[in-house]
Structure formats: C-alpha cells, structure tokens
Amino acid sequence: MIIRRIEIQNIRSHLSSKVEFDEGFNCMVGGVGVGKTSILLSLHFALFGEPLYRDYGYLLREDKNNCKVSVEFEHSGKIYKVVRGLKRERGGRITQDPSILTLSENGKLLAWGKIAAVQEQLKTITGIDKKMFEEFIWIQQEKLKEILNMTPRERQNLLDELFGFTDFHKAWESLLQYKKHYDAVRVTLEKDPDVAGFTELKKQYDELLVEYINLQSEIENLKGMVAEAEKSFRDADENLRNLEALERKVESLKEEKLKVLTLLSESN
Asked: How far apart are CA 132 and CA 139, in angstroms?
C-alpha cells in the first residue's frame, strides 16, 4: 500500500490543503502548529473512520461545521480513493457524514454511504486493521517509548497478537492432543500384522491393476481386428454372391446359345 495523495478541508489548522507523496521516503518538516500531525490524523481518519481519541473534536475546526478528507493510495497495481467527512450536529456532537463517504477503485465506486461497508472493503483491500496501523505503521512518540521499554517477551507477545500468531499458537496447542491420539493409533496399527501387510497387498493390487489395464487394451485391439475381419468377410460374401449371380447368367446365356444353334441346324 502506497499513499499517493491526501486532501483535507477544515481540519485543525488546515482550511484547504493537498499533499502529494513521492516514491520512496517522504519527510514532513515544519514548526509547531503548522499542521504536520493534522495530516497524519487525517490519514488515520480516512483509512479507519474511528476517532483516535474519545470523539472527533480533535479533527474538526472549531469555527466550521463540516470537514472532509480524501486519500488516494496504490495497492497491487490499482489506484484507490477513500473520501470521508465529519459534520457538527445541532447539539454540538460531531459525527461522520455518510453523504460524502465513498471508496473507489480505478475511478469505479466500490462502496458508499455505509460506514461498515466501506470499512470492510478497505480492510479486505489493504489487509491492515486499526490496531496494527496504530501499533506499528504510525507509531506516536508516547507509544514508541512504551514499545522500546517493553521486555523482549512482552514485545513478542504484542507482535503475536497483532499478526494473529496468538490464535495460531492456541490452535496448535489444541491440535496437540489430536496429534498424540493419532501417533498412538499409528503405532498400534503398525504392529497389526494385517495392517503391516497392507503395503505388499497394495503393491500386488497395483500390479494386477496394470495387468488388467493392459488386458483391456489388448481386448480393445482384438475387437478392432474382429470388426475389420467381419467387414472383410461381408465384402467377400457379397463378391461371392455377385460371382454366383454372374455364373447363373453365363449358364443362361449358354442355354440360349444352344437353342439358337439348334434352330439354325434344323432350318438348314
């Protein structure tokens, strides 16, 4: 995931700002209060939608009733854009504004208007959840000190939890009892003479199967030869019938010839 551009309106010290990021390392430099942290807070809001603190009061300017953040990022060769906004209600409470909430991929809308739908799509696309982002991608100064002061074991436990290794370890421990049962059954079966001879039986079966397949192939070849022989026989039988018919016709012609010769002799 590569952040390409962020646009913010009415957030903290920013009335209307656009920041574009280049390839590689980017560094934001400026004095206190110029809005460096505001850009990071806006990015967090755009990606996750949830307040970093108790409410959204830290984002929306005190003199404005609406704000908007637009973040464009690249992931797996595709360009995504997420747009979120906040609005100040009559009682002063600040909430997300679903009317401007959108998520698009290469300019085509994927989700809009529903916070849960947009958030689910974003997590599916990036594979990053809010906790992982806050713990290891955007590490605030106080959190960085906390991580550095952890013992190696505590740090490892934190990593396991963030990357899902804790669930993996629990699942592995649960599987150990099944592995033990499997090993016990395997040892028992290996001692069983019927099971021990299974390999030899399997070998014999495979050999007989190969022989059967070869016989089937020979049978198919013989069937073809028989079919050709039957056709040859039919052709020969038809030729014989034709010859017999021709022989009968020749005999008939001989008889006619004899009659003609007899008539000629009598007439002389």
From this structure: 10
Encode 214-244: b = buried (16+ Cβ within 10 Å), e = exposed: eeeeeeeeeeeeeeeeeeeeeeeeeeeeeee
Strands, E assignment, the chain: 2-11, 14-20, 66-75, 78-88, 94-96, 102-105, 108-112
Specify the residue for token string 């799509």.
Answer: 121
Enclosing H/E stretch for 58 = none
Q: What is the dihedral sign for C-alpha 149, 139, 114, 63?
A: positive
CA pair distance 9, 115, nearest whole angstrom: 20
Reported pTM? 0.55
Q: What is the pLDDT of residue 139?
A: 62
CA torsion 93-96-98-104 (nearest 10°) is: 170
